[in-house]
Structures are given as structure tokens and as C-alpha cells.
Specification:
It contains 2 helices and 3 strands; from the N terminus they run αββαβ. By secondary structure, it is of the alpha+beta class. A hairpin with a 5-residue loop joins strand 1 and strand 2.
């Protein structure tokens, strides 16, 4: 079962979304974070229930 489908029906988010803060000042979503955010938002729009999404932030130590 896909992550998106699981979250659309109200499944929990166990794995954190991984963000990379680049030395250039930009932030990138790694792996399937975009699908998790989209699914959580779709669930919110449908049910009004908000979901806490865990986030792990990785910071690049080079300029």
C-alpha cells in the first residue's frame, strides 16, 4: 500500500519528513516528503482533522 493511499485514509505518519538545508540558503524535501504533506492536507480538507508530521532537519555544513 502506498504512503499516499495510507495517509489519505487516515493512517499515521511514522517516518519523519527529511528536509535538507543547503549552504546556499535553499531547503529541499528529501524522499517522499511531498507525498506525505499532500496526503495530510487532503485528509485535513476532507475531515478537518489535523495531523502532526514529524520532521528531521539536516543542515549542510558547507557554503
Amino acid at each position: 500500500q502506498s504512503i499516499f493511499r495510507s495517509l489519505r485514509v487516515g493512517g499515521t505518519i511514522n517516518e519523519p519528513i527529511r528536509l535538507l538545508n543547503c549552504g546556499c540558503g535553499k531547503t529541499y524535501i528529501l524522499e517522499d516528503g511531498g507525498h506525505r504533506i499532500s496526503a495530510a492536507y487532503a485528509l485535513f480538507r476532507r475531515t478537518g482533522r489535523d495531523i502532526a508530521i514529524p520532521v528531521r532537519k539536516l543542515v549542510a555544513d558547507f557554503p
